Amino acid sequence: MQHLDEGTIHSWLDGALSADEAARVEAHVKECRQCAAAVAEARGFIAASSRILTALDNAPRGVIPAAAPAKRVDPMVWRIAATVMVVAAGTLVVFRNGVGTAKRDQATVQTAATASGPIAPETLMRDEGTGTTSAPATPGTTQAKPAPTATTRVLLRAPAMEKRGAVGEVAASDQVTRSRNVPPAAASAAQTFAQTGGAAAMDASEQPQALKVVGTPRTLGAKVTLYEVAPGDTVTLTEPTPLQLQSAVVTGVATGVAEQSPTRQAGKAAAAAPMRRADAAAVSAPPVASANAEASRVESANGVTTITWLDPGTGNMLRLSGRMPAARLQEIRLRIERERAAAAKKNP
Amino acid sequence: MTDVERLFRTYNAALVRYLTRRLGDRDWAEEVAQETFVRALRQTSIENERAWLFAVATNLVRDEARKDMRRRKHLAILAEQERDEVVEPEETTLERAQEAAMARKAVDALAERDRLALLMREEGLDYNEIAEALQLSSGSVGTTLSRARRRLVESYETLQKSREEREKNAAS
User: Do A53 and B103 touch (CB under 8 A)?
Assistant: First the structure.
């Protein structure tokens, strides 16, 4: 009999040969030293490849952010778009002023734009006679809308995985205990936290390890930070970022008046801007948060818990979401708040 | 228990493990597995369930990989950011992470057909099922598997050696 080829040896070891073929191979391997060595080598390859593949099972979760990343558009495109919009809006205002009424002697066009965010053109028309300011542009453009935050993937989970999420507080403490990065004292404190649901237990515990930032995907109108809280477990913090006024364009008949009283104009615009921002902030803050700055809203859907709260430092609504019970998320929120406060102290 | 429930309970774990090994991300793997079961719902009858499920999952990954270059690019950016941050993890974690990275490299170095055949075999598919899922002749599965195993182990050992040399150089 000829020597066995490698494919046949693997087929034999995998039990894929018919009884007759298997008997023939077995008889040959008993007699042929070379083939016996090849069989031993094949056994080694089978065992080693299984072991190597097992190392792949420790794959992380949530490597991919839940929301597909927004398609990056060259900031220059936004700038060009802003310029076009400003010119168009300015032309419209000038045209209307020229044709419509002789009363209106000026039009001021302002635009707000950020380097990376969408352009929010804001057109202000001032009526000299009444001294009122109106915004003919869509009201929504006066404030930067936070970009849609991470949408959670709707998953039909395996029963075993459901169980992990469903055990709630127990799972939270269990997860902490299993994590090698958390000292035992912190783990037990976290367990107490889970049982009491209070923040006081966390304060009494040892300072937990700093949260590891694993990514800051770029999102328009919001700052998104991915924190790794345990190997393979991440949470997402979303913080809306307000748009900044970068340029002011004065067009048309406004030039004459602008030259006459630049101080008055600038003063008015400066006075209007903070007022608008304050109004917008008041509108954007949900009633719960405005009533109590510390209160947070908890939502849970498809295994993903999201808490929303008002950050007293910045006045922004922060959103924290992750695949874990609310108690654990609250604990992470406290850690994030502590780190943010420490960072603010360092860089006031 | 409906038929799809039975399919899910019987094959979900193996399918998710196969896809996790194939894709390197558990969430993505679960997503593809679920889509596979959704496809199964639309079938009136499936002759060889396991081979069918693995074949559909493999095709879904292939289609998604084609469409989803953007997501891959984003992953690369994230990985780069992570490399930039110097974090000193525990030694065991580091060790495991290095092993996983080497395993990933070694698996990625295989030809697609070899890789899929090997991953399917690891999930217990027999030669006929592998042949059906990958549209091979069942006679060639043994050769495919023997080649895949040899190359995987050899690639891994090469990576291991170069890592040891790097560590030795760093120590000296």
Answer: yes
